[in-house]
Amino acid sequence: MDPLVQYKNEVSADYGPSEMVADQPTLARIIGSLGAALTIFGGLAMALNLSGRVASVGSGWAAFAIAIGISGLLFHAAFDYEVQFRRAYMLFGYMLLLMGSICFLLPLFGKPGLFGLGCLAFIMALLFIMAFLRHETDSMIAGLAKAALGFVGSISAVVGITGCLIGPENLRSSPFLPEFFVAGLFGMLFLASYLGSRGMSDDFTYKVARLALWGGLLLLVYALLRSALPPFLYSFGYIKVRPAEFLIPGGFLLMVLGTLYFVTAALVSSDSKLAVLTQRELGSMFFSPIAYFVLLGFVVAGWFGYVDFINRLSVSRNNIEPIVRNYVIDLVPVLAIIFIVPAITMRLLSEEQRSGTIEVLLTAPVDEYTIVLSKFFAGFVMYLVVWSPFGLYLLALPLSGAPAFDYRPLISFFVGLCVTGAAFISMGLFFSSLSKNQIISGVLTFAGMLGLFIVAIIRERIFGQNPGSPWYQVLMHISYLDVWNTTLEGKLVPKFLLFHASSAVFWLFLTTKVLESRKWK
Questions:
Q1: What does the H/E/C string look like for 464-488?
Q2: Reported pTM
Q3: Rg (alpha carbons) of the chain, rounded to whole number
Q4: Shortest CA distance to 389 belongs to which of 275, 258, 295?
Q5: Is residue 171 within 8 Å of 177, Cβ to Cβ?
Q6: Domain locations in the chain?
Q7: What pLDDT, on the 0 to 100 scale, is given for residue 4?
Q8: How far apart are the first and last CA of the chain?
Q9: φ, ψ (nearest 5 deg) of residue 53
Q10: pLDDT tens across 423-446, in order?
């Protein structure tokens, strides 16, 4: 035998191959340690302030420290796979679930101020449990956590939907309508997390998804018929007594819940190419830290806008409807949306081109329209999720003792927001298809959003004194701020939505043509 070969065999027999050692999540543990310190510090300061003792740190800074600390703990929970850490976060998530359930029940006993704390506890519980499930290897413990998500989701869904189905009179006067609606929303979130964590690998989860799908569809149809049929029969004389109004706000909230349950279950359980690709895009979007930074930024912006709105309501003695107009058409949300749309859309197609996966998509058995629509729907869903804190802040108005406001402008504004948002996302998607550099795509989308914002300024400053000018009317149709302002007055005029709906179709058509040209290169 060759001496060199013999020597290599002896070395291999004595020492064996090198042991594979996984990298330690050092950065995550440092951030988690800082987060734990900030959480403890903020919690002690908050406890001192609530007990009436003098503390060097005010309640506002204590809440800010707790928020930053919890964010650090979530980062640590998402990236540290060690068993002692993930099990600790599992127990923390269970404690938050219990605390959220108690805070949800307390409004029934005259403690409405803790409902917001329950919402926060439920959100954090869901995030910590999902982070734990990401790393857990024990099938029994992971199965218990998934069952807890499914149980809480089912109870929340039943309670929320049943509460919104009490009856027309109770829906209009019930002080617990916001709680029921939010409970229904949390039911959808927990059920979606349960189905997503288990997958469609067994018949049980598929049946649960189909039950949610048909239940959401039935709820939507019921709300539509219950809102439209009695007034229609009364107008033709088939009903002698004028029926109580059902659409505002109960019927509309039921329509929202039914649509959310139907769409979520369809995305999870459907085998269509569009649903599968949309689910893939949503997964990649929410696994990216950009989505959470965007959401956190808009939550903070919404909080500043809400506090300013409450202060103006407390100072003003004449709350002229629609009071929500001063909440939405404000400097904070208007400027925030200019930056957030590029952050959502800049990576939709640019990242595919940079990583080289665009070739795999273009050679897959799907057409370009399906690829473009899946990207568009994922960005549009993220756009609506980003706006959701603004609506949740408004749900706190009745709980804080603020005067009741008219819900009709919110319904028309929601339609206008969806139409203009579709135009924004489709424009950003087109710019994302032009370059593999995300920064370039984001800058182009930012320039487009800024141009649409400047249109409103030009219309007001240059042509504001001459409303009869044709240029005034043209710019009014282009400006999304004028669309928002009009819909917030309760006026849903289709001609003002036509430009934005047409531009959404136009941008999607151009994006499809860009992909087709790239396919044939």
A1: CCCCCCHHHHHHHHHCHHHHHHHHH
A2: 0.76
A3: 26
A4: 295
A5: yes
A6: 138-270, 278-394+408-521
A7: 44
A8: 57
A9: -80, 160
A10: 999 999 999 988 888 888 889 999
